[in-house]
C-alpha cells in the first residue's frame, strides 16, 4: 500500500482556516477560489469530511486532499 508523504504546513497563529490553508498549501492562488475548490475536491480533516472554508485548523491537524496529506505545524 502506498503511503503518501506528509507535507508540513507551518502557521504563525494559533489556527488557520481551511480557506487560508488552501492558499498556504498552494492549492489555490486566491481566497476567492476556496469555495469552488472545496465543491470540486473532497477534503478530509483528521479522518472526517469537511467542506467549510471557515473551519479552524490547529497544530497537528491532518488534512487529506486528492491523495495528498498535509499536517499543520507551528
Explain this structure to me?
- It is a single chain.
- The N and C termini lie far apart (30 Å).
- Helices cover 19% and strands 35% of the residues.
- The chain has one domain: RNA-binding S4 domain (Structural Genomics Hypothetical 15.5 Kd Protein In mrcA-pckA Intergenic Region, Chain A), CATH 3.10.290.
- The chain is globular.
- It is α+β, with helices and mostly antiparallel strands and 74 residues long.
- The protein has 2 helices and 7 strands, in the order ββααβββββ.
- Strands 1-7-6-3-4 form a 5-stranded mixed sheet, with no helix packed on it.
Task: Give the helix/strand layout.
Blueprint: E1 6-10, E2 15-17, H1 18-24, H2 34-40, E3 43-45, E4 48-49, E5 56-58, E6 62-65, E7 68-73
Parallel strand pairs: 1-7
Antiparallel strand pairs: 2-5, 3-4, 3-6, 6-7
Amino acid at each position: 500500500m502506498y503511503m503518501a508523504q506528509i507535507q508540513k504546513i507551518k502557521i504563525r497563529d494559533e489556527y488557520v482556516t481551511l480557506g487560508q490553508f488552501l492558499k498556504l498549501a498552494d492549492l489555490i492562488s486566491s481566497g476567492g477560489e476556496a469555495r469552488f475548490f472545496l465543491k470540486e475536491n473532497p477534503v478530509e480533516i483528521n479522518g472526517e469530511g469537511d467542506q467549510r472554508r471557515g473551519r479552524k485548523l490547529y497544530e497537528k491537524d491532518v488534512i487529506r486532499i486528492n491523495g495528498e496529506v498535509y499536517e499543520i505545524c507551528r
